[in-house]
Protein 1
Amino acid sequence: MGGMSSPSVTPPVSRLSAVGQLYVTTVGALALLSLVADSAAWHVALVVLTLPLSLLALWVGYYSGLAVGFVTGAEANELSWPVVAVWVAVWTMTAWLNAQVAQKVLRVGWRAVPARKFEDVDLDD
């Protein structure tokens, strides 16, 4: 019985389309521009482009940037490369999540996003 083993189960690989990759790259570039440019228009474009997760990204990006700046000893009036890297990484990951969901919805339809009525949710779990 020592030879019996179950085959390993690997999740399907989900790759972004060329449009999804362009979207993620564009959001990453906008995140960088929003830090180095003086115009607030880059921030507005970044928030609009990453809807619906942009508010979460703003919160996570801001506080993770503060934490990294604190840990690295960055000055408050200067940008350090770790803070910039975290800011760009948070926004790029937000864009990646948006692209994954949009790609799945376009491929499968809205049934790809599970929706349940509140009455059907068991809160005791």
Protein 2
Amino acid sequence: MTDDTQPPHSEETRASILDQLAYLAREADALEQIIGEVPDAVLTERPPSGDDWSIKETFALLARLDEAVYPRWVERIASEDEPRLDPPDEEALLAAGDDGADWNAHDITNLMERVQEARKAFVGMLQELPPRMWKREAVFGDGDDPDRRDVYAITRDVARRDYDRLRRMTRRLHESELSAAGHDVPR
């Protein structure tokens, strides 16, 4: 159980993580400049390893997490004592969104705009969260040694996962035929 008498994370710490979370929206905006020139085949192809989503599916997943998972987690943490939260089932999350539509059939610009809107709403929700709520914890996992994380740790993990997804996506764009075709995609 969380002790509400201990001081919460500093305002500077919260501002830093909020800025890191907002980075996703800024990065999507920056990518929008070049992504329109990327052939649809590159945007819809999954990596040969089969361990990742297509670029369009990745943007859809980022939006769906910000729309349907992370805000619910924060609401539960704010209203329940030590709620038990499950990691998101990415496949089910994508299947449940937009009536199970094929995300690869969506326009990439619309997906990127959806990411930006969803992330801005999530960051706005966190900005409104009272500082004392940032230290409230949720429990992840079962068994004798469950993982306890406060809102700060959860949002830090979200920012890290987003960064890793964007890095992998950018690498895939760079390694595609775009560089050979005269399009410079930064690493």
